[in-house]
Write a sequence for this structure.
């Protein structure tokens, strides 16, 4: 085994045993958690696809292709009358109406083939918001360079590409959780820390404060907050920030209370008493002795807070009290699928929901793996 | 215990007051409330509107309005009126058995969650790392990760498009099919209710069920590793007795503390289910009021949800004290 070889130096003597650092042990434990690794990889893929959405998406998310409302996901072909082609191709479609029912359907024009090509020139965008470019990961082009639409996930009522919109929507859906954490954690650490460290009257007051916030019925209040900010005709960015503020508002108290409990427990530890006896100041004890013992909890709590925030944001946006057009998120995209008849006719409108489920699942797995990795008593 | 109960109940009042003040302030932020829209509508008698404005102090500053509203509740039990229907808020939120249905759906969902999650948790723990355990764990995580509303949409889609339930004369959404509405209770009607209520159980209960199942599994695994279980085994007791009489009984107790924690999920789940599955509940009335910006009904709804959570938590605490003799309240 590799380990044995490692333990011996070249001259054959036993190498001095070096115990791994805590970070190293956590990392090793994390790598052992297979499902957690898969989750982390998926999170990585989702984040990259959202960050480079302009590149991976073939179109602009707001462009309306009026000729193609409710177009089903494009079919890829490999075989035609003149044989098999390893490079998939698509056909251009035209919308026609049933003369009796006036129901729309799409007819492919099989006379011309549009091959899927990579790194094609398309609409202009800014990569990562910095570099202006028009190169897209894929697109369908005929031999003469003319273009056909590729709707990987179909299109919506305005003929906008759902795949593009899903990638762009990921930006909002994935950033809601981290942004809420950026707001909530400093507040929770400060108030929970004060409450747990000083005890007494401060603790009494803080605990009552936490209780008030924890008694708030989350979703109903968020709907009211959403209704209030959406009726104020704010710019989409402010609505987004308002949603973040609302989510932070209802979620900080729960985390603060747990931090209070942790600080309370750590404060009574001998090493804190020792630090105190050695004359350390309160600030030094909090920053140097208590906070480090909280980091593992904070990392895990952060990873497990993200999926909850994603779910709530999706629910709010789906119900029309969260993210609005022209902005989009996975929940907002599902808003188009709000009745059974519509879903029956255009089931591809449900695809963004799969992204929510997979994203939340991946974050949950990652958080689970982190928790096990940070737990010195677990040995899986 | 009784003094504890009284103290807890009294403690709800300031909580309700603070939360109502806060939500009242939020509603004031909405620029176009229902009354301003009524003024534009020539159908309404301007004099009535003016009288209403005076009665509720709608032209007064925010704190005066709040004071009028609170005074109405305390002195006359008047929670305000619904501007949309002209009926009292109490009536708008609770009429037509709405409160009853909310309670029935909440309680049956909880029953459904517990009765399915605990056996699955026990099974998973006694079959640790077997394929069935992994399968349940996977579906548990899936249940935690699927948003209620998306689950409801997919469920409806599967029922309508996949199974084409309309073929069998069954509808989706609501609590009854049209032909049963207003008819006296029969066995067929109960059957129809069951057909309409199980999607609600699934939609509301799945996430809670998944959490409970994982918790039960973990608890039982911890308990099964304790020395007293080994003692029980070494006495020669059958595995069945060891698991169900010795281990499960102790592993179930901590679950009761989950009861209070599961309530917020129950409220938001019921809200989403009522909206998508069109259930005639208090949540649905709240939703309608929200769309209409019907201020006092929204306030009434918020108070109801807060009270629901507070009372639920109180009951959960009492239950915890009842099953766990180590907990004392004084």
């Amino acid at each position: 085994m590799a380990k044995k070889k490692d333990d011996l130096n070249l001259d054959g003597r036993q190498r001095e045993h070096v115990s791994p650092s805590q970070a190293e042990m956590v990392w090793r434990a994390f790598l052992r958690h297979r499902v957690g690794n898969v989750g982390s990889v998926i999170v990585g893929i989702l984040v990259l696809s959202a960050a480079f959405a302009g590149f991976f998406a073939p179109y602009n998310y707001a462009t309306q292709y009026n000729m193609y409302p409710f177009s089903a996901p494009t079919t890829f072909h490999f075989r035609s009358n003149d044989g098999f082609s390893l490079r998939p191709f698509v056909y251009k479609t035209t919308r026609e109406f049933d003369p009796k029912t006036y129901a729309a359907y799409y007819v492919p024009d099989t006379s011309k083939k549009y091959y899927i090509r990579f790194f094609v020139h398309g609409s202009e965008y800014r990569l990562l918001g910095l570099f202006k470019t028009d190169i897209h990961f894929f697109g369908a082009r005929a031999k003469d360079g003319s273009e056909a639409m590729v709707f990987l996930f179909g299109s919506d009522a305005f003929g906008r590409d759902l795949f593009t919109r899903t990638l762009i929507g990921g930006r909002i859906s994935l950033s809601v959780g981290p942004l809420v954490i950026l707001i909530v954690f400093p507040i929770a650490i400060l108030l929970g820390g004060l409450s747990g460290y000083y005890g007494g009257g401060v603790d009494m007051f803080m605990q009552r404060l936490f209780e008030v916030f924890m008694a708030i019925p989350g979703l109903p209040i968020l709907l009211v907050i959403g209704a209030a900010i959406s009726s104020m005709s704010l710019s989409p960015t402010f609505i987004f920030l308002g949603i973040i503020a609302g989510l932070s508002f209802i979620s900080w108290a729960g985390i603060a209370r747990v931090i209070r409990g942790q600080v309370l427990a750590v404060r009574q530890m001998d090493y804190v008493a020792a630090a105190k006896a050695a004359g350390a100041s309160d600030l030094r004890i909090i920053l140097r002795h208590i906070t480090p013992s909280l980091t593992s909890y904070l990392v895990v709590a952060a990873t497990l807070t993200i999926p909850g925030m994603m779910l709530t944001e999706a629910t709010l946006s789906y119900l029309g009290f969260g993210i609005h057009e022209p902005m989009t998120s996975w929940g907002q995209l599902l808003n188009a699928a709000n009745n059974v008849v519509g879903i029956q006719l255009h089931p591809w409108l449900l695809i963004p929901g799969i992204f929510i489920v997979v994203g939340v699942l991946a974050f949950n797995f990652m958080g689970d793996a982190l928790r096990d990795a940070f737990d010195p008593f677990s040995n899986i | 215990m009784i003094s504890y109960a009284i103290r807890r109940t009294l403690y709800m009042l300031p909580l309700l007051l603070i939360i109502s003040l806060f939500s009242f302030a939020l509603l004031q932020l909405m620029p176009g409330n229902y009354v301003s829209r009524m003024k534009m509508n020539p159908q309404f008698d301007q004099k009535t509107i003016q009288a209403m404005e005076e009665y509720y102090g709608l032209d007064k500053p925010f704190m005066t309005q709040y004071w009028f509203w609170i005074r109405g509740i305390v002195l006359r039990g008047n929670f305000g009126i619904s501007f949309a229907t002209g009926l009292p808020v109490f009536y708008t939120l609770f009429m037509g058995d709405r409160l009853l249905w909310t309670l029935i759906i909440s309680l049956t969902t909880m029953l459904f969650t517990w009765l399915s999650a605990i056996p699955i948790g026990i099974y998973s723990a006694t079959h640790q790392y077997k394929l069935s355990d992994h399968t349940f764990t996977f579906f548990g995580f899936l249940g935690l990760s699927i948003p209620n509303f998306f689950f409801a949409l997919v469920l409806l889609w599967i029922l309508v498009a996949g199974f084409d339930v309309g073929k069998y004369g069954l509808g989706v959404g609501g609590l009854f099919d049209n032909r049963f509405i207003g008819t006296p209770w029969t066995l067929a009607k109960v059957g129809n209710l069951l057909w309409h209520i199980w999607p609600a159980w699934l939609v509301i209960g799945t996430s809670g069920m998944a959490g409970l199942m994982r918790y039960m599994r973990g608890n039982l695994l911890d308990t099964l590793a304790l020395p007293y279980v080994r003692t029980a085994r070494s006495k020669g007791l059958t595995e069945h007795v060891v698991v169900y009489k010795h281990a499960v009984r102790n592993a179930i107790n901590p679950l009761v503390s989950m009861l209070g924690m599961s309530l917020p999920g129950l409220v938001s789940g019921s809200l989403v289910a009522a909206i998508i599955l069109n259930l005639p509940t208090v949540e649905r009335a709240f939703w309608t009021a929200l769309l209409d910006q019907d201020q006092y009904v929204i306030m009434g709804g918020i108070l109801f949800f807060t009270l629901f959570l507070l009372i639920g938590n109180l009951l959960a605490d009492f239950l915890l004290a009842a099953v766990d003799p180590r907990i004392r309240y004084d």
Observations:
- Residues 19-96+283-330 of chain B form one domain.
- Chain B has a mean pLDDT of 85.
- Residues 187-224 of chain B form the longest helix (38 residues).
- The radius of gyration of chain B is 24 Å.
